[in-house]
Amino acid sequence: MEFFGNLLTGLSIAGTWNNLFFCFVGVFFGTLVGVLPGIGPLATMSILLPVTYGMAPATAIIMLSGIYYGAYYGGSTTSILINIPGEAASVVTCLDGYKMALNGRAGPALGIAAFGSFIAGTFGLIVLQAISPALVTVALKFGAPEYFSLMILGLVVLTFLTEKSMAKALMVAAVGVIMGTVGMDNMTGTARFSFGVPELLDGLGIVPMAMGLFGIAEIFLNLEKQIQRSVIAAKLTGLLPSFQDWMDSKWAIVRGTVVGFFLGMLPGGGGVIASFASYAIEKMSSKHPEQFGHGAIEGVAGPESANNAAASAGFVPLLTLGIPVGAVQAILLGALMIHGITPGPMLLKEHPDLFWGVIASMYIGNVLLLVLNLPLIGLWVKVLKIPYSLLFPMILFFCLIGAYTVNNSTTDVALMLAFGVVGYLMKKFGYEPAPMILAFVLSPILESSLRQSLLMSRGSFAIFVLRPISLVCLVLALTLLVLALLPMTRKKREEIIAMEEDVG
What we know:
The chain has 23 helices and two strands. It has helices at residues 2-14, 17-35, 40-48, 57-82, 93-102, 106-139, 144-160, 166-179, 206-223, 243-264, 270-285, 298-313, 315-321, 327-338, 345-350, 352-373, 377-383, 388-407, 410-428, 434-456, 463-466, 468-485, 487-503; strands at residues 183-184, 191-192.
């Protein structure tokens, strides 16, 4: 009964006309950026952060969340129709989705992708709703040492699972932690790393940083690419999968959902790793593995289910522990902090309306996405024909306006452009910006947890190994660092990265 009571509470919040409208806006823009290659949910959420300043916290998170999981739906459209993934998690869908389109089966491919995404997303939400109260109860027993060690583990796992060099990811994360210390020390009131600039006394803003690293940098990168888009000209028919399509896909959807949900809860896991893992599992378990890569519908159903289940699962550690598992969740964490709300165990107790409202809105969002992705497929095909020469100047203009209006500060505009150049150079030289933004968001919590722990222990670092939960987290982090140094592990990471690049 508690399950349904919480759901009804959430629906009473998410079901208001205002929240319904912004839920629709979120999933619509999410689908749109998923359809358009080269933009992605991370850049879009970063660009739209200033828009959320005037919203209620629940409304802001509902809209931003809709953009996030909506992009996973839209990403499959470009993968299937033009063999270009609109979103990173849809890379694997290109392998069989585009081949199905060439064979005249674009409709069933799009249909099974939409239905698989809906089933997986809904399952993920049910599990999220069921386990969240129990996780919150456990998390309430966490003290400062446990939080510090848990976040250290999160940062290490994220860098371990990064697409590029782990050493580079660790360096980038370290820079992010340092940038998080810019501004006034909240314990002593001392200015740190402000270099005499008054605007920096409040610290670096997450809005200009995120907009620069992901929005401006992506524009620079895409402008130097010659993306050729050739949309499948055949008329799209048979969007509803046949009975045989369902029979062929049912276990792929089930396996993809389970794999995606568990991988989605891990720091650095997310939809990309989940979709690759699902594809590998389906190929290994298939009676006809030779069909994969030539238009096997299981190769679409499994990965698309996995990445959408992962999108739902990413909210588990964010809402219950206050720990973002990736850059997107870090943006959501930053959005909550902008509104004066700290995610974590106390979120459910202090802001139950926001907690259950966001979860309920995701149920509504999944239904809206199913409606948007099948009847409006013709619209998305037309959107694919928008030239980038018109698209990117509009995005740049919106970024400039958004950065300025947050604090009416030209300093924020300058910071955004500077981070845009930094993000562009990082991408060019093989450095992923995601660990930086994640470390930046976690830095204040990491620092305060460390200082509180040392006050508790009167300066002794032994407190981190004398407490069981803290010790387990640190041991796991150290184990991952050791594994990363082993030749076998390094070779396997290089093989996975090479496979992802080949597919992309």
